[in-house]
Design brief:
By secondary structure, the chain is α/β, with parallel strands linked by helices. It folds into 3 domains: 151 residues, 3-Layer(aba) Sandwich (Rossmann fold); 31 residues, no CATH class; 88 residues. The protein has 15 helices and 9 strands. The strands form 3 sheets. The protein has a 5-stranded parallel beta sheet, sandwiched between helices.
């Protein structure tokens, strides 16, 4: 399959992902240069969706590593199936097998539990590896990750070096809760995705909630855009915009008004202080979105 910029552009559109030329170019270059793509931006702008769309585009598996504080190599790379090993040891001991023969069995691939990184490397075909919210992992794990992303191979002492037969497509996402190391950034192509403009978000709503009135689609996009400009603790994500649009459709709403907005603000704002702040500005936001 030849990867071209048109292939990426048309493929993203076919997968119902509304994007920009900057995003299309970054994705294309990451594919042809076979470099990891680091996507940064606010939570809820569609960073993770890029990896999902790529898996759909190439009709392949999405292998996801969700990062969190305290994530270590064992959870990300591999572990030995200790229970299965113990059962094998007990069975072989009962048959009076010597330790050399026993260890040859229990330290084989049959007893290895593949975690996301090893699963992506050892996959029989090219997969998409999503390393989600890398900024939540510790700096020590980030340093370990550099080794894997450099050569796409891992060393298992009992088995030797396991190398990728098919280099995976790698997407890393970050909400920028902390700065990532320069070393990691050097190994990746960088892309920043911000919240969409009103026109782009209206297109997303039209694509995902097509039964919503066209005028209301634009009104919702403008209203949510206004909410994001307020000093709120958590700006509404695209997913929350779509949830609100679907709720308005279910309620049979044809146009936004103050009572409807106040009754449904909890669908797009998830902190009580944000809701109270927005309630005082509903009138202004409605006038701006009309």
């Amino acid at each position: 399959m030849e990867v071209t910029l048109d292939f990426v552009r048309i493929g993203l559109k076919r997968c119902r992902y509304i994007t920009t030329a900057k995003v299309e170019t970054a994705v294309y270059l990451a594919l042809v240069l076979e470099k990891p793509l680091l996507i940064e931006g606010p939570a809820g702008v569609g960073k993770t969706e890029v990896a999902k769309v790529l898996a759909e585009l190439f009709d392949t598996d999405l292998v996801r590593l969700q990062c969190y504080e305290g994530l270590d190599e064992a959870r990300a790379l591999y572990e030995w199936n200790y229970q299965k090993q113990l059962l094998r040891i007990q069975a072989d001991t009962a048959q009076e097998q010597d330790w050399q023969a026993v260890s040859a069995h229990i330290f084989s691939r049959d007893y290895l539990l593949e975690r996301p990184l090893l699963r992506a490397i050892s996959a029989p075909r090219k997969v998409v590896l999503l390393i989600d919210e890398i900024d939540k992992a510790d700096e020590e794990f980030e340093a370990f990750l550099l080794e894997v992303l450099s050569d796409f191979q891992v060393s298992v002492p009992e088995l030797g070096t396991l190398s990728a037969t098919h280099r995976p497509v790698v997407v890393l996402t970050s909400n920028r809760t902390r700065e990532l190391s320069e070393a990691l950034k050097r190994r990746c192509l960088h892309l920043y995705i911000d919240f969409p403009g009103v026109q782009e978000e209206a297109e997303i709503i039209a694509l995902k909630v097509p039964d919503l009135d066209e005028k209301l689609q634009r009104q919702v996009a403008r209203f949510v855009g206004g909410l994001r400009k307020l000093d709120v603790k958590k700006a509404p994500s695209i997913a929350e915009t779509l949830d609100w649009a679907r709720a308005l459709l279910a309620l049979g709403v044809k146009a936004l008004d103050a009572p409807t907005v106040r009754q449904t603000l909890n669908l797009i704002l998830k902190y009580e202080e944000d809701i109270r702040r927005a309630e005082g500005r509903v009138g202004d936001l409605l006038r701006a979105s009309s």
